[in-house]
Amino acid sequence: MTSAAVVILNYNGRHYLEQFLPSVIRYSSPAQVVVIDNGSTADSVAWLSAHAASVSCIRLNQNLGFSGGYNAGLHQVKADYVVLLNSDVEVTENWLQPLVAHLNNNPDMAAVQPKIKSFHQRTNFEYAGAAGGFLDAFGYPFCRGRIFDKVEEDRGQYNDSRPVMWGSGACLAIRAKAYWHVGGLDEHFFAHMEEIDLCWRFHRAGYQVWYNAQSEVFHVGGGTLSAANPRKTYLNFTNSLAMLAKNLPVAPLVMALLGRVVLDGFACLLFLSRGQAPHAAAVVKAYWQFVSNLARVWRERQAIAKRFPLLRVPHQMVLSIAWTFFVLRQQRFSETIARQ
């Protein structure tokens, strides 16, 4: 019989644990619930001991980020399936069963995400994952239900379960064997883009990644870094570039990087036009960091390529999502894909 564990990474998030952990405990049986405390400096662990005795707590000595925290903690979790769940996610009754069943019935599936909706605007999809994620040829992520900052209302238009390029780290059920087979999360990605890179390696190893519409959760979002924080911009851009360099064959990689220089230049101008100079500076810093780390990234690329072949963007649906969104004004996933 297969086993599952719901694993929450926490850093000074007692307020989220108080708000959302009770529903996770209530609706996740018979799965074990585990909290990895990522070196919290506040009273999260003390609160867990006093109010959630049924929850296993794995304590790390320092904040290792999303990737490092999960890798360190998951080594201590014994389960066939692990569900990475953000601490700011509200689960619903019967949310877990469809995800576990999907993995049970499809041995070539590495990961599956539920429908992720906004906690504050509950009829809308949520930015971080919506109804499953994709990439364009230049590495810009978008979702069924969210392109850039345009989030759709859930009207049942994405109620079909289907393969996707990536699933959201806000709530992602993963086959543990597949997770370790591809090396887990890249710990050089402190936060942001790490789950997309992981899913790309799943595809390279021959696994599938899916979206399951029968499971639904609600995500607050921005619990670690808000969109207003330039560090979020920096991490998104530098990790995106590193992800392309790690996974793409040479010809599409050259095209992608040349295109990114142009498109990210426009992004800088857009930030400046909005009075967001720190975000423009964050993009420049991201490029500097990417170039500085390129030798190390290239070594990683070569090491991974010895095990899994380099691969063009899986399930690529558009060449440039920026072109379709800003120029063609196709701002919903359904109309963007329908016109390709």
In short:
By secondary structure, the protein is α/β, with parallel strands linked by helices.
Describe it.
This protein has 340 residues and is of the alpha/beta class. The protein has two domains: 4-219, Spore Coat Polysaccharide Biosynthesis Protein SpsA, Chain A (Alpha-Beta Complex); 230-338, no CATH class. It is 42% helix and 20% strand. The chain is built from twelve helices and 13 strands. It has helices at residues 14-27, 44-51, 65-74, 96-105, 176-181, 194-204, 230-247, 250-273, 277-292, 294-305, 321-327, 333-338; strands at residues 4-10, 32-38, 56-60, 81-86, 89-91, 109-118, 133-135, 141-143, 146-147, 150-151, 162-163, 171-175, 208-219. Strands 1, 2, 3, 4, 5, 6, 11, 12 and 13 form a nine-stranded mixed beta sheet that branches. It has a two-stranded antiparallel ribbon with strand order 7-8. Strand 9 and strand 10 (150-151) form a beta hairpin.
Topology:
Blueprint: E1 4-10, H1 14-27, E2 32-38, H2 44-51, E3 56-60, H3 65-74, E4 81-86, E5 89-91, H4 96-105, E6 109-118, E7 133-135, E8 141-143, E9 146-147, E10 150-151, E11 162-163, E12 171-175, H5 176-181, H6 194-204, E13 208-219, H7 230-247, H8 250-273, H9 277-292, H10 294-305, H11 321-327, H12 333-338
Parallel strand pairs: 1-2, 1-4, 2-3, 6-13
Antiparallel strand pairs: 4-12, 5-13, 6-12, 7-8, 9-10, 11-13
Count of domains: 2
Query: Biggest sheet, open or closed, and with what strands and sense?
Result: 9 strands, mixed
Note poorly predicted spans: none
CATH class of the largest domain: Alpha Beta
CATH topology of the largest domain: Spore Coat Polysaccharide Biosynthesis Protein SpsA, Chain A
| First-residue to last-residue Cα separation | 44 Å
Question: How much strand?
Answer: 15-25%
At the fourth level of CATH, the homologous superfamily of the largest domain is Spore Coat Polysaccharide Biosynthesis Protein SpsA, Chain A
Average pLDDT metric: 96
Topology order in helix (H) and strand (E) letters? EHEHEHEEHEEEEEEEHHEHHHHHH
Q: Cα-atom Rg, whole angstroms? A: 19 Å
Name of the CATH architecture of the largest domain: Alpha-Beta Complex
Shape: globular
Helix content percent band? 40-55%
Count all strands and give the number: 13
The tally of helices reads 12
Briefly note the structural class of the backbone: alpha/beta
